[in-house]
Write a structure and sequence with these properties.
The structure is a homodimer.
Chain A: E1 2-4, H1 6-19, H2 27-40, E2 44-47, E3 57-65, H3 67-70, H4 79-91, E4 95-99, H5 110-118, E5 122-123, E6 125-126, H6 139-142, E7 150-153, E8 159-163, H7 167-180, E9 184-188, E10 192-193, H8 194-200, E11 202-203, H9 205-218, H10 224-234, E12 237-252, E13 255-264, E14 272-278, E15 280-286, E16 289-293, E17 297-302, E18 308-309, E19 319-325, H11 334-340, H12 354-361
Amino acid sequence: MRKIYEQDVEDIATGASFMGAGGGGDPYVGKLMAKSAIKRGNPVSLINVDELDPEAIYAPVACMGAPSVMTEKFPKGDEFQRVLQAVADQQHKKIGGIFPIEAGGVNSMIPFVLGAQTGIPVVDVDSMGRAFPELQMTTLHLAGVTVPPMAITDEKGNMGLLDTVTDKWAELLARDMTVEMGATAVVSLYSTTGEKLQEAGIAGILTKCQQVGQIVRQHSKGHDWQLQQLHEITNSLHLFDGKVVDVSQTTSGGFNHGQITIDGLNSFSGKTMTIDYQNENLVAHVDGQLAVSVPDLICLADIDSLTPFTAEDVRYGKRMAVFGLPCDEKWRTPAGIETVGPRYFGYDYDYQPVEELAKERG
Amino acid sequence: MRKIYEQDVEDIATGASFMGAGGGGDPYVGKLMAKSAIKRGNPVSLINVDELDPEAIYAPVACMGAPSVMTEKFPKGDEFQRVLQAVADQQHKKIGGIFPIEAGGVNSMIPFVLGAQTGIPVVDVDSMGRAFPELQMTTLHLAGVTVPPMAITDEKGNMGLLDTVTDKWAELLARDMTVEMGATAVVSLYSTTGEKLQEAGIAGILTKCQQVGQIVRQHSKGHDWQLQQLHEITNSLHLFDGKVVDVSQTTSGGFNHGQITIDGLNSFSGKTMTIDYQNENLVAHVDGQLAVSVPDLICLADIDSLTPFTAEDVRYGKRMAVFGLPCDEKWRTPAGIETVGPRYFGYDYDYQPVEELAKERG
């Protein structure tokens, strides 16, 4: 257990934005929310998965919807407690802690906001080890923890409880409600025991995000040892450097969809990378050849400052470094690939690990 | 209190289909469901609003969605009990009875199905005195009874509970869920006390529907005294006789929308009527002049047999009689007109009672 202060959430949000693989919301918004809550409330306790109460339940609280809208339509603040309470009421159990559903600029911060509001500890775990766009895309789902009982609410005070026959049905119904609520909503779901969370979650993700955030904060232009540090923490492969020459984005069905085209710089000069995304980056090709695909991470950062970019930050002329990160081993299973592999997102090719694709290119 | 048998539900469904003003679902489907439930279960008790238990709550159970889809996608049968139980659980009160949310071929029958399944009595009341397309369009809403706590379910077993800040928000969120569930769903909502139901409901609607159904069953071509009987029960004005020459229909957003064009026959020869509908008939014009608009009823029947037509039954060549019925006085209030008048549905003119419009035409 350790206490979390403003500098900590600042670094965690930055690192989570990197690990969010282009999604998970704007870290600037996430930082503002968490720092303001900690200033007004209490410093928050961060506990490890080996410190969990076997009698209690643990649940994520998260924003759902299009990240581009989240930047303009903040939660009001009382949504987090409302959905958590609703989920706890359904279970008739005490809440032992909260955790982020995913690494991401906003969704890594919500448990800290709620922790500062309520004193409930935050657990150093998430259910993706990155960010993904849909509710059933979690390692908890793979381990048989279900989305329901799920609560969904908005800043106006509308509230829904969902009990669905599959996690995908929860995604479909909650996505429609999210769109109606104004393209973002607040949800709690996947409540589970400490034992199950320890087995099925991605432990230590917040500490890893904080380490990445510290590297970014300390980064000075041209210091290769910092890229080396990033590699040591995340196993990142430096896939591309380039300048953004085209971006397309649409917001529909409660998601941001789009494509980014990058012309190569430095040792990548003369090559072109394209990245497709649905909230998060899905696949990247260099000159038409697959370089990395879901569930591996495609992470974007400013070429000089290493500041991470979410997909909706990307603008014409931005100079970016693109990193490929191997996903957690839990995703590299048949069930994992079926849930979040390239075919799920409509691509007609199989998943290949990013490090193998890199070897093939030589 | 009286017992309801197969012939009763047959007549009620026919009459409710007439009073459904073009909506409320296919009476053939409704009759099948109710007759089969009564055959397998028990005859159902129909009670009056002066026989209600002051300690109990009363709630409608209904199908929501596009009537055209309801004809092909039947409820499985266990949905009705599921939503009613969910609503009762939220209230911690005993259920004294169920009632139709509206007059309509399907929605007048669901309480009888549920009554046969459970023994819960059906109350001779509804919340519209006709059918309307949206959830907030009830006399209960006008009287301050709220849609939430609301339950919504589908034949697969997905279940949602809604607690919304307004009835219109319940309509918006439940409509999205209905579309996702396959364009129809089963709902329970507007649970209320016997006292409030007596004050705010449309009492006697099922008996009125049964009387209309009996007239239709006994109708023989050319018997004017039966039109006279219909008039005595419903205050119907015989607005038009004609042959359908054009029908447009789209199913979108969980509704059927369309327009019907009818060329005049008999004394209406040389004139043309157009009827716009959204599940239910909304406005009818003769040669461009308004003849009747919501909340007054526009009811369609076969010119020879008086068999009622729902809007989605209407086909090229059908020979129809069109009746205008004054709506219940509860709708002819400023709040009623605001909720279901022509301006709510996007028309840029004020409501005028159908009998006044008829007088103006002379």
